[in-house]
Design brief:
alpha+beta
């Protein structure tokens, strides 16, 4: 079983004890940049640009392994029934010859 834990930390201070929020900053004539910032590190940016909206994200998993549910899982293959042998194995002949009492007495007399 694989368990993945994702922890979002501030890109500036890297502290795990503070909640970080993802923001997308788009300068005029530039490419958008996505940053994870804690409340303390986003304060200077908000002082210049005003209140920022957090970046829109798809909702995270509500329970462990929720991402696995989104992917299609292959259906388990059913085991094929065991194949029977086409022809039964030949039987061995008897190892000891069945003899009557008279045949046994006759063999003793010959010896």
């Amino acid at each position: 079983m694989d368990v993945t834990i994702t922890v979002r930390v501030c890109d500036i201070c890297k502290r795990r004890d503070r909640a970080a929020t993802r923001y997308t900053l788009t300068p005029e004539d530039g490419e958008p940049r996505t940053r994870d910032l804690c409340a303390e590190d986003v304060a200077p940016v908000e002082a210049v640009f005003g209140p920022l909206k957090p970046a829109e994200e798809k909702p995270g998993p509500l329970y462990l392994n929720a991402e696995d549910d989104e992917e299609e899982k292959p259906t388990p293959r059913k085991k094929a029934p065991a194949q029977k042998a086409a022809t039964p194995a030949p039987r061995r002949g008897r190892r000891t010859k069945v003899m009557t009492m008279e045949e046994i007495e006759a063999l003793k007399a010959q010896s």
